[in-house]
Amino acid sequence: MSSNITLLRGLDPAPTEQEIYAAALQYVRTVGGVSGLSTTTKAAVDKAVNAIAAATTQLLADLPDVRVAPVTEPQLRHDREVAEAE
């Protein structure tokens, strides 16, 4: 499995729906070998991403808190901080 999948557990503040969706999309693209969406892949990818995002949301809610936050932030959060600093 790709080590590029974003770690979301332990983030402060908690991951947003957008961050969870982005991680699910990242997972689906990696597992499915889909680099871009086409009319033939879009429906299957969207369905899988929504299912994985829902499962991820439930997983994060069910897991106990971690003692140490991830060492890196999701790319979406990093991009937002860079934009706010400009």
Structure description:
- The chain is mainly α.
- The chain is 56% helix and 0% strand.
- It is built from 3 helices and no strands.
- The chain has helices at residues 17-32, 42-62, 75-85.
- The radius of gyration is 14 Å and the shape is globular.
- It starts with 16 loop residues before the first helix and ends with a helix.
- The model has no long low-confidence stretch (mean pLDDT 86).
Strand and helix map with partners:
Layout: H1 17-32, H2 42-62, H3 75-85
Helix pairs in contact: 1-2
Class by helix and strand content? mainly alpha
- Please give the number of β-strands: 0
> H/E series, N to C?
HHH
What best-fitting shape do the alpha-carbon axes yield?
A: globular
Quick take:
By secondary structure, this protein is an all-alpha fold.
Keywords:
globular, 86 residues, mainly alpha, 56% helix, 3 helices, 0% strand
